[in-house]
Amino acid sequence: MTKKNPKSKYARLDFSERVTIQNMIDDGKTNAEIARKLNRPRATITHELKRNARVIIWRGKTKILRHTYEPVQAARRAEYHQSKSHHSQPKITPKKREKIDYYLKKKHWSPEQIAHGVPRIGVCTRTIYNWILNRNLSATLNDLPLKGKRRRHLRAKPVNPEHKRMMIETRSIHNRPEVINNRSTFGHWEIDGVMSPQDSQSFVITFVERKTRFMVGVKAKSKSSDDVKTALDTFMSRFENVCESITCDRGTEFTSSLFIYSIEDTYGKKLYYADPQSPGQRGTNERMNRELRRVFPAGYDFTKITQRKLQNAIQDINERPRNVLRFKTPEKVFTKRIMVA
Low-confidence residues of the chain, pLDDT below 50? Predict the structure, then answer.
């Protein structure tokens, strides 16, 4: 019996094949099994995942996070590379190229932030994107904020005992006043933990003020209630006077009796818990954490850095102009609100 030859390696994948790749990855199939199903060389599947799934280097080894593969995004990227621009090249000078590359690669600004926030830059947001796409800059798409936003599989978490569930539900985000929800008042913070690898206890607790998008980060030695309380005390030592409430998720680090007692009794602040598996209810914090992850990618061990180095990285984030703030920086808006408060 004649064996059916795989498709030519030069035949591009179509959208239906990309959907099949995603579905088979979700079913736990290997690259070889996917290749046989699609009658493709295994190298074709590997190259497709390298181009369109997240790739990390951990302890000297390259790993493809196959679950981050998105067929729609992969198809769009393929369509772009197949197309050719017929427009004349925009005018770009070496000085302007160097300046834009600096803000994209070193400061981690977005093209929109550069166009509106860098004095006398003289280009619009779309032009900067075109320069990146046409490879007129040394910066690439991978240097852009939010590049490759990925879906993630949510894992079931241990169920809290009845008394703890009652403590959480009485402080549900659904009981949070509308003046906090619509950001009409100042001094309401969202907090979250940015974790190290599983073999490290250290992590960072990030605090983001909802109205100004101002971010603060504090290192914690571990997720134990005592270490989390120490990090909370560090934050309150500077910002207690401009903190009225805190909203967090239901992680074990934020549901201990000591944590609740510290916020409500020691500091007299309101505490609210988001619903399970609902990061969108703390969207401001999640958005800022993604920017911090661009400096300290997933897998980074926070025991390797000092609090000063962490704060320097967060300072850069606070100094980026924001569209939602009419291209003012969180640093300036927050400082102004403190002076008024």
Answer: 1-4, 8-9, 85-87, 148-157
User: Taking Cα atoms as reference points, which of 196, 203, 198 lies closest to residue 221?
Assistant: 203
Distance from C-alpha of 202 to C-alpha of 324, rounded to nearest angstrom: 32
What does the DSSP 8-state code read for residue 120? T
Range of the domain at 129: 94-143
Measured CA to CA in angstroms, residue 77 lies from 55, 126, 217, 299, 325 at distances of: 16, 17, 35, 27, 31
Residue 123 vs residues 113, 131, 292: alpha-carbon distances, Å: 11, 11, 27
Q: Name the burial class of residue 237, with classes exposed (0-12), middle (13-18) and buried (19+) by CB atoms within 10 angstroms of its CB.
A: exposed
Six token digits for residue 274: 């988001």
Do 243 and 121 share a domain, yes or no? no
Q: Does 159 fall in a domain? A: no
CA distance 288 to 208: 8
212-258 confidence digits (pLDDT tens): 999 999 999 999 999 999 999 999 999 999 999 999 999 889 999 99
